[in-house]
Each structure stands twice: as C-alpha cells, then as structure tokens.
Amino acid sequence: MELSLTAQPALTGYREALDYLFARTTGGFKFGLExxxxxxxxxxxxxxxxxSLHVAGxxxxxxSVATMAAVLAAAGRRVATYTSxxxxxxxxxxxxxxxxxxxxxVVSFISRYTPLVEEIGASxxxxxxxxxxxxxxxxxxxxxxIEAGLGGRLDSTNVLDPIVAGVTSIGLDHTxxxxxxxDEIARExxxxxxxxxxxxIGETNPxxxxxxxxxxxQHGASSVRLSTEEVRLExxxxxxxxxxxxxxxxGQRLRLTTPLAGRHQAANLAFAMTMLDAAGPPxxxxxxxxxxxxxxxxxxxRFQRAGRFILDVAHNPAGVExxxxxxxxxxxxxxxxxxxxVLRDKDWREMIRVLSGVAARxxxxxxxxxPASRAWDLDEAAAFARDTGREVDTVPxxxxxxxRAETGAGSVLVTGSFHTVGDAMSLxxxxxxxx
Length: 435
Hints:
By secondary structure, this protein is of the alpha/beta class. The protein has 16 helices and 17 strands. It has helices at 14-23, 34-42, 61-74, 103-120, 124-138, 175-178, 182-189, 206-218, 227-230, 263-279, 287-293, 317-330, 348-355, 378-386, 398-406, 418-427, and strands at residues 52-56, 79-82, 94-96, 99-100, 143-147, 164-167, 198-201, 223-226, 231-239, 242-249, 252-258, 304-306, 309-311, 336-340, 361-364, 391-394, 411-415.
C-alpha cells in the first residue's frame, strides 16, 4: 500500500486501517526508543497522564498482567492493559475497563497520524504503542499495566517512567535479537528498571535472580523486591479448574485459587502480588482482596479448555516445558493429539521433543496468519517428529488439520504460537474468545 507523506490516506474502514499498520511490519524489528519518544512528544506525551506498571520477561507476562488487572479492577480502578501479540483481533492489545479499543478509534488514529508515522519512520509496534498510550489517556484510565513486546531495554514500551517495573522470568527466546545466553537476555530484560522506582523480580533460578537484582541496583532502583522471598508458596495443586496454593505473605497464611492452570501460575501469582505491593497505595491490595478478585482473572489461550480441545500459546521450549507439566497434572482424556505449528525461527525441535512426552500423535500444520517469511518446513519438522517415535500426520490446510487431529483423539492440544492458537480460536465454537 503506497501512502503519501503529505496526504492523509482515505482509511474508511477498520480492515483498511489494519492493512496499512501491518504493512509496517515488513521492515523487521526496529530497536531504539527515539522514534516512539518522538511520536509521543508530538501526541502531547499521553503516557504521562496516568500511572503505569511495566512488565518484561520471557514467559509469564500475560498471566501476570491479567492477574494484576483483575485485582485493580475489583478495587474499582479503571484499568488499561497493553499486551502483545493478539490472538484474533488486533484490538485485544489495548483494553480499558475490560473493553477493547473501539474499531473507530483505531481507524481515527491511523487516518490522523499516518503522515507523522511515516515522517518519523515508525515501525508497526512503535505506532501501535503510541496508539495504545494515547487511547488510554483519552479513555480516562486510572492505571495502565503494560507488557513489554520484545526484550526490554530497547523495546518501545520502555519510554515509560512506571511506578514499578518487574521482570517475570528469563528463558532462551528471540536469541537472534536479545543474545544467545540467559545472562545476555537478562541484561536486556533488566533494561526496564528505572532510577528511583521499585524493581520486582520473579525469576526462580537463583543465579539469574541475583544477576537481575544486580542490574536493578545498577539502574538505581529505589528497592529490589524478590517475589520468591516475599511470597512463600506451598502445596501447589493443579487441576481442571485452575491452580490452588497455600501462600505465606506478610505474616498471613492464605489459600488462594487462580483459574489459570499450571504450577508456574503460582509463581506468576506471587510476582503479581509483589508488583502491586511495590506499587504502594492506592494500588496495593489486602490478602482478602486478592482472594476475592482472583476468580475473575481471564486470559484466553493459556491452557484454555473447550470440549476436547486445549489451547495454549506456548511458543518456546520453556513455555512448552510448563505446558507439558500442566498436561500431566490435569491428566485430560487420552489419547492426546498435538496440533502443532511453530515459527521456524523458534527452537521447534526442542519443543517437539518435549511435547512427545505427552503426545500419542502429532498433526503438523501451517497456521494461516503465520508470516510466510517465518513459516517452518513441514517435511523437515515431520521427519524430526517421527524420530521421537510418535505417529505424525502432515496436513498443511489448517481447517483440515483440526478435523484430522480431532479424529480418534481423547484430547487435542493446540499449541506452538499465538498464530496457531488464534487461528484455531477463530474456527472453533469456543464459549470464551478475546474481547
């Protein structure tokens, strides 16, 4: 789509607006904060008009954001959340008071600010971040919970001066951009810590936790809060209805239940509790408030069950490890068929190896929304999957792959990427979809 730098494009519909915005993904990732800062300055610095909490990490960001948002909303706050990527609708990325940004607002922003976006040379994510921050201000958000997109130090969201910044966990992902070791990735994620602001760390690996704490101190954080030390977890029990755990926190002993399933969700809960406590009044919550608000937590695509289907956006080996642990804890009906599509720049071999621990059969496919430039080689993936000793079907057509996976399955696990889960959600008759 060719757009003039001087003439405002005739964007009359939501789909046309998104076509323009997504066209800005073709240049790859752009690191650096200067373009986002310039956009926000020209918009009047909307991000300064509400307090924000900033979250980075390899895994656990989405669950932690959803948990904090639920607790803040239960306390009567008008909460904004910025997350990525989306599953079905772009508008899932920016939500205020439980409602996605209206389509008309997306169209209006892109129509009005296209010349500015092009003048600055902003990327898709930079323009989207500016759109979100601007919308949150106009929508009257009391507080925003912001998830970093890629990394932290040079991620567009790092223009924020949050009241608290936290890193959930560190794993090997996006190594081509963030570094090939956990230490290098930790350094990038720790880039969100700010002088004079509290830093929260949820990492469970002691060595990486110490490294993150050291980075937080070097960044001048006002305090360094470790959720593993502040919130003691015991008797974690994972079942079909979610995760139950005993929590020792601030001299109190609680039994808390989150509808999010998985042992890792207990650690995510501890991180979220520490984040809000570090944010201080009026955002910190009592033990009773946590117990009352947790049942309202909702996040599509995280061990979401619909009939015999289980959908989970695990898209790296660490995510798949915890997914397999959750599958074993929940013990869904067998045989388990894994419907899988992974982007080729991920460690799909390790993901297949781990998934083979629960899979009776693999159905390997191509998610329709997955970028063609990142599409995996089905024949290569199938050959590797067969070496695990599992039966393997290769079905390029996604709709046909869903039908093939369901045939003879006790449970169908759909995973591998946000694209895979989002495309499945758009086809399956799910009771709960985003928005």
